């Protein structure tokens, strides 16, 4: 089975090579969906200059190669029709038989047309990474949701995925956090942290640090014993971290995110490697001392007055920082995890840091040419006031409360449905989480958007609940018909234009999934699923499936289209991490 666009690309490239010579075999045929046919190829226009011939003439020559008598005489004739139009467009229309055949193959394929990447790659996905010293906020929510979708899609394509939750769990603030824990007692501290009040905890500790000299001195001394990994300090640090993690895990479980404790590789893990990172870079002259600080100066970065911009890996007081740890992440991921590709799913505001990091690591030879490292930039989530969505009426929004509110509001959406309480709660959970997650995924990851419950929970438009509802509705067709989707094996035959359009759409699933993985772009899969659900709606409005007067063969074909649509919506939503409720 083939994606229609790939099929046509291959055919047109072959025609180009036959007509104008093999040097044209790699030219991009510029195949695009068209209003007048299934697709159009715009290559004749772009080639006409190079060939010094009129575009229409070039187009005609390609058309002849595609469907002329010689082409039709081969054992693999063009599966459709070609027409030259306008200044030199090629309008390409696929035959119903070809589409139906391909759709039947996708239907029979347990992977619904999604291939496996061979050989599999090792893809490291760095995502979520909240800071233990502060509350996890909506920004972390989005990196968590987008990162999880990317991890899921790579796994589905057969790649080996290593999830890395780069927790902010180390550094000087932990001196005062541990001292505060001693002040208020372990039990009270644990209760507060488990409840997700890390921010308040931090602020109280900070206030004491600033106002109380004795506390300040204790906190500083604690940083020293923490750096030395002194056992009692480590015990207290673990109490703090374990309680904090229990809160993060509550958020992950509620969101149905696949991160587990196994995936934790926080800043503390890299602590023992930092001295060597600095020494080696200094010995090799990659990093140099500048006003006492150890810095790499990757070429091409300038700051004020055109001064070269430092990537500082050790401050003048000897302290390591975020950049040091991140240099260590690259080494570990390349050398120990054997990454072929590393995705850093992190806020767009860190673009400069990430870019200097990659360049510094390339300079050091720690990030070899064959390893792809990418900053998947996450755009900010804004409140209705257009500012960062962090606070409401002055106080910061607790993530778990936000998620609970999503579920409560989702309950409203389904309030007139006839379900018992357990079922209702289950659906409200799925719809609430689906709405929040889909809102993060359906716009491109680097753009900002406004957090708006009403919009994300709408049952119409490009929303999670719309897609959840679309698949639930197909399930109900099967329930009413008394057949299971697995029994709907076709064969698929196409009569009505809406059947044809739906089938053509279903053929593209595999290549869209690959595209999402290649470009780290969940929104491409999201908009594909939305288009698929829309094509299904048109089909369902025009083509009765269960009605008595529908001929048995037509009914079998239509049920098969329903089954394949359901499978693709279900698989696609699952790859995005959007829950799939049975009913809605
Ligand atoms: N903890 C950081 C933050 O909250 C994100 C860490 C991302 N990962 C990394 N390797 N830098 O901004």
TrEMBL record:
<dbReference type="Pfam" id="PF03485">
    <property type="entry name" value="Arg_tRNA_synt_N"/>
</dbReference>
<dbReference type="InterPro" id="IPR035684">
    <property type="entry name" value="ArgRS_core"/>
</dbReference>
<dbReference type="GO" id="GO:0016874">
    <property type="term" value="F:ligase activity"/>
</dbReference>
<dbReference type="InterPro" id="IPR005148">
    <property type="entry name" value="Arg-tRNA-synth_N"/>
</dbReference>
<feature type="domain" description="Arginyl tRNA synthetase N-terminal">
    <location>
        <begin position="6"/>
        <end position="94"/>
    </location>
</feature>
<dbReference type="InterPro" id="IPR009080">
    <property type="entry name" value="tRNAsynth_Ia_anticodon-bd"/>
</dbReference>
<comment type="subunit">
    <text>Monomer.</text>
</comment>
<protein>
    <recommendedName>
        <fullName>Arginine--tRNA ligase</fullName>
        <ecNumber>6.1.1.19</ecNumber>
    </recommendedName>
</protein>
<comment type="similarity">
    <text>Belongs to the class-I aminoacyl-tRNA synthetase family.</text>
</comment>
<dbReference type="Pfam" id="PF00750">
    <property type="entry name" value="tRNA-synt_1d"/>
</dbReference>
<dbReference type="InterPro" id="IPR001412">
    <property type="entry name" value="aa-tRNA-synth_I_CS"/>
</dbReference>
<feature type="domain" description="DALR anticodon binding">
    <location>
        <begin position="467"/>
        <end position="584"/>
    </location>
</feature>
<dbReference type="InterPro" id="IPR036695">
    <property type="entry name" value="Arg-tRNA-synth_N_sf"/>
</dbReference>
<dbReference type="InterPro" id="IPR014729">
    <property type="entry name" value="Rossmann-like_a/b/a_fold"/>
</dbReference>
<dbReference type="InterPro" id="IPR001278">
    <property type="entry name" value="Arg-tRNA-ligase"/>
</dbReference>
<keyword id="KW-0436">Ligase</keyword>
<keyword id="KW-0648">Protein biosynthesis</keyword>
<keyword id="KW-0067">ATP-binding</keyword>
<keyword id="KW-0963">Cytoplasm</keyword>
<keyword id="KW-0030">Aminoacyl-tRNA synthetase</keyword>
<dbReference type="Pfam" id="PF05746">
    <property type="entry name" value="DALR_1"/>
</dbReference>
<dbReference type="InterPro" id="IPR008909">
    <property type="entry name" value="DALR_anticod-bd"/>
</dbReference>
<keyword id="KW-0547">Nucleotide-binding</keyword>
